[in-house]
Amino acid sequence: MRGVCGCGLWMAWLLAVAMPASAGTATVAAASDLQFALTEAAERFEHETGHTLRLNFGSSGNFRRQIAQGAPFELFLSADERYVEALHDEGYTLDEGVIYAVGRLVWLQRAGQGEAPGEDMPLAGVEKALARYANGERPRIALANPEHAPYGVAAKQALTHAGLWSQTEPLRVLGENVSQAAQFALSDDAQGGLVAYSLALAPPLAERSEYMLIPEGWHEPLRQRMVLTRQAGEAAQAFYAWLQQAEGRAIFQHYGFSTD
């Protein structure tokens, strides 16, 4: 019996040494294109440090407003750097933050929906939807709401670039954020949608979908910036630093983000 107890005490001592003396909890607000990438990053960070993270995913515009209204978020990872810059100008953040990734936009559709668009015509799926609409059908085209979701803004810009924005009005269905838009894009009544590349690469979506990257020149760069708010504690500051190191950057790269 003494041997068992001794082993238990030894393991407890090892765990105590491995974890920070004051492991804490941090509340994080993150753009929904990070749903899979940041969840993976948070799991590794928690395992390595003993800190606990409470992740909240949604549209960057909504989080920007909530933080200005006093929401207790300690770290904000936005899909559009302008929301972070606005919060800094208004005095809600510790500094200007850093760009942690640059995102990409894709056309996403269900596997088996038909031939996937090619590089020469990345919005061929939209053209197909419009042809079906002309024949009396109403296939949906999904995108995030451009009013507060950066990927929705990029989707609108890409459709405008291709001369398809006004034509698609009767077919568009708007997600509250880009993650919801991806769900709509893969629904039975949708032709597809314009969503984040990071979501298209995530296993739960990748196994039942196809995608085509939209040329970067068709929309403004999706520069994603993160920042600590004035409420940030030790755990939030540690995660902010960890995401800028090699392990955190590698996770973002795995999900299709550029980190250079």
TrEMBL record:
Secretion signal, residue range per the UniProt entry: 1-23
Positions of molybdate binding: S60, V178
Pfam family, one: SBP_bac_11
Domain of life: Bacteria
A molecular function (GO) term: metal ion binding
Keywords: Metal-binding, Molybdenum, Signal
Claim: Metal-binding is one of the keywords in the record: yes
One Gene Ontology biological process: molybdate ion transport
CDD domains listed in its UniProt record: PBP2_AvModA (cd13539)
Record family assignment: Belongs to the bacterial solute-binding protein ModA family.
Protein name: Molybdate transport system substrate-binding protein
Organism: Vreelandella subterranea
